[in-house]
Design brief:
The protein is mainly beta and about 400 residues long. The chain has a domain of about 130 residues: Sandwich (Immunoglobulin-like). About 5% of the residues lie in helices and about 40% in strands. The strands form eight sheets. Strands 15, 19, 20, 21, 22, 25 and 26 form a seven-stranded mixed beta sheet that branches. The two termini are about 35 Å apart.
Length: about 400
């Protein structure tokens, strides 16, 4: 469990829970076989996982869910079974792909949360993460990344997957997809140049597109492996504020102390930076002088998930600056940016910025990312953050 004496954002690896990997999912299912209605009733509050019974089968697996989860990041009921498809580097891009069983997730439109159930034709959940090949910094793909699945020379699926947030996989692109029965499949991933401003040594680094190809065999062996790899969180830990441990390849943004510039908005004043918070998100803030080489102070705002430090894209923050009670700049938009030292963040060069200024950072839109279990109830009503700037 976490050390509550540390601010959430400083708890990088010690704040998360490992799920219990035994007994296996298939062993549990085997134990329920023939149990009838009484045995199935014990699975109330579970979600159906379809398509794991092989071609022509209508077998239905069920996984536990958390009923009435809190409106914060919470520990989910289980850790998903995944099959890594490998990592491919193309220029500055590093692509990692994996598949899991098709499962429900949630979409966010404005401040509306919409549950996406498993379609009858969904066979797997395909996930792709994009990072910088040198630093490992996550490159949010938005809706620009495209996946094309082929089998025997024919296109089976072609789409722009959702940008998603998962405690296990971090920020990635993913969706439930249908296949054409058992067989060999090839996945081609294409990534156009990201629309984010590129700062630091990333300037000009991602001006070209990147692509990668992965392959996998969809058969009963894979389906068995995915169900065997499901692991369960102890019932007493499910649904409480917290998170499970991410995979080693899940990209995190830097600790606040490692961000460029001088940190602002310390909530404790104890010497250990405790960032401002907005609807359970930690919002690290820094000012760096002449960071873009334009002679102006650069305001850097880095919202991230608590516990695992995943970036939160898909927002539209803006800052209002007041000095001695007078507004000197209003609703100045902060641009999305990727940086070798800061990772994904929002920022702007602002000539008017001075020590002693009062900043109100408005976040009118929640992170526009789809969510896996454990994130769906958090980051939906982002409150503004107020900061008085110190020296830099």
């Amino acid at each position: 469990m976490m050390d509550d004496s540390q601010p959430l954002d400083e708890q990088s690896d010690s704040t998360t829970l490992e799920a219990d990997s035994s007994p296996s999912r298939r062993a549990i299912l085997g134990g329920l076989a023939g149990a009838g209605a009484a045995g199935l009733a014990a699975l109330a509050g579970c979600t159906d996982i379809r398509g794991m019974g092989g071609d022509g089968g209508d077998a239905t697996d069920s996984l536990p869910t958390v009923e009435n989860p809190p409106d914060v990041v919470y520990v989910p009921s289980h850790r998903e079974g995944v099959e890594p498809l490998g990592t491919v580097t193309d220029g500055p891009y590093e692509f990692s792909a994996m598949v899991s069983y098709a499962h429900p997730f949630w979409l966010v439109t404005g401040q509306t949360l919409e549950s996406v159930e498993i379609g009858d034709d969904a066979d797997v959940h395909l996930m792709v993460a994009v990072r910088d090949a040198e630093t490992g910094q996550t490159i949010p793909a938005g809706g620009a990344l495209r996946t094309t699945i082929e089998s025997a020379g024919s296109v089976v699926d072609d789409r722009n997957p959702w940008q998603m947030l998962s405690q296990q996989m971090g920020l990635h692109a993913g969706d439930n997809v249908g296949l054409d029965g058992d067989g060999e499949y090839e996945v081609t991933v294409t990534m156009p140049p990201p629309a984010h401003r590129q700062t630091g040594s990333f300037a000009g680094r991602f001006d070209n597109s990147g692509s990668a190809t992965f392959s996998f065999t969809y058969d009963q062996s894979l389906r068995d492996a995915l169900t065997d790899r499901i692991s369960y969180v102890d019932e007493s830990d499910r649904g409480v504020p917290g998170a499970i441990e991410p995979m080693g390849s899940a990209g995190r943004v830097p600790l606040p102390a490692d961000l460029p510039g001088t940190l602002q908005g310390d909530q404790t004043g104890t010497g250990t930076y405790d960032p401002p918070r907005s609807d359970d998100a930690n919002v690290a803030i820094a000012v760096a002088d002449d960071y873009l080489g334009d002679g102006e102070p650069y305001l850097l705002v880095s919202p991230r998930t608590p516990y695992n430090r995943f970036p939160l894209p898909g927002m539209a923050p803006a800052v209002t600056i007041s000095r001695d009670g007078t507004v000197v700049a209003e609703d100045r938009a902060l641009q999305t940016a990727i940086d070798d030292g800061a990772g994904f963040h929002y920022g702007a060069s602002i000539a008017a910025l001075q020590p002693g200024d009062d900043l109100t950072i408005e976040m009118p839109a929640p992170p526009g990312v789809a969510r896996h279990q454990g994130y769906e109830t958090a980051f939906l009503e982002m409150a503004s953050v107020d900061v008085t700037l110190g020296e830099w």
